[in-house]
Amino acid sequence: MPSIIFTPMPSGLAKNYRAFAPDAYGLTPEHRLSPGGYPCRHCLSPIAAGTPYLTLAYRPFPTLQPYAETGPIFIHADECEAYDKGDTLPPMLDSPNYIVRGYGYDDRIVYGTGAVTATDNIITRAGELLESAEIAYVHVRSARNNCFQCRIDRATAGATSAG
Prior knowledge:
By secondary structure, the protein is mainly beta. The protein folds into 2 domains: 9-76, no CATH class; 85-154, no CATH class. The chain contains 2 helices and 10 strands. The strands form 3 sheets. It has a 5-stranded antiparallel sheet, covered by helices on one side. Strands 2-5-6 form a 3-stranded antiparallel sheet, with helices on one face. It has a two-stranded antiparallel sheet with strand order 3-4. A hairpin with a 6-residue loop joins strand 3 and strand 4. The radius of gyration is 15 Å and the shape is globular. This is DUF1203 domain-containing protein.
């Protein structure tokens, strides 16, 4: 089974959103105070209660195409360190289960790969999916709302997840 790495949203993109660059819908990110527990897609940790955060539309795909799902995400309004703990399950993944789904090199869903997966089985399931030559990467998405949580890639020597 291949080694995996949990990959957050790219740091440069998070920095741009914090400077109020337009999101995937061309809108300014919304600035709010956290009620606690919202998952930051950059540090992959929960956003503590009372902490400023941004809500924005995010498209974790390089181009527009029919499978390029776009949806709401949260990030800390202030700078945070990009998640860089390799194959360690990120702390924000604290629900009982998530959708784990493979995507091809053309950034389209590879049919038959998506499944609601128990959180403690995400690493194993992602590794199994990435054994297939047709799977380029995996998404972890909310099992309740389908919101993008993070990406999982094959680990390569010297790779970092901060993109």
